[in-house]
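The following block was generated as part of the benchmark described in Methods. Ligand: flavin mononucleotide.
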Amino acid sequence: MELMEIIQKRRSVRRFKSDEVKSADIIEMVEAARLAPSGSNLQNWHFTAFKQKNSIKRIADAAIDAMEEIAGNLDAVNKTLADKFRRFSKVYTFFFAEAPALIVVMSKASALTGFKEMEEAGLDASRLYIKSPGMQSLGAAVENLLLRAFDLGYGGCWITSANYADTRIEKILREETGFDKPDYYMAALIAIGVPDDDAKPFKKKQIEDILTIVE
Ligand SMILES: Cc1cc2nc3c(=O)[nH]c(=O)nc-3n(C[C@H](O)[C@H](O)[C@H](O)COP(=O)(O)O)c2cc1C
């Protein structure tokens, strides 16, 4: 497929057929991620693809436990918010339990250029955190991965809403795969599979709303 057609047709997929995601295809997807640009060419990413139902269920259970712990604590303070969190999580997080493949995306913090210098100069550098080049690099890699997944006939969904379960999921990852990079942390999950829905692409902003050309 042409690049622009892939970009136009890609959409988030949250319901999957039971078809296997072939390991050779996962390699292709991560190959696309591998070639993404990254700040200082740090390539601050690692992808672990789980295909076994048991492992995916273990990760989903860990996320559900973490969500219930938060919601349980919240119940006494704000029951409405706790219930909203539970409903949101069901739709936008735990669907990954049924995905034929689940990729755990690990990342590493990268230096914020100018941060040290600003701090030393007595200037407030805290606003640089939200512009983290490390996270921007990771975004480039994940999008490449998702575009290639679509190109290969799969659908996927980028998931950050389980990040509150990060330490639990990292523990599973380290136990099941021996992942041993201590400075890497969980940044996202990606659910992958053959789409089993007929959802339409989400409405996007118009070009004039997001682009200014100064000629
Ligand atoms: C950084 C990031 C985090 C996201 N996290 C979630 C998530 O936790 N759960 C979910 O269902 N979708 C998640 N999405 C998918 C978005 O909801 C989706 O991209 C958006 O609604 C636009 O739809 P589209 O991907 O079909 O164009 C995420 C997307 C991005 C880029």
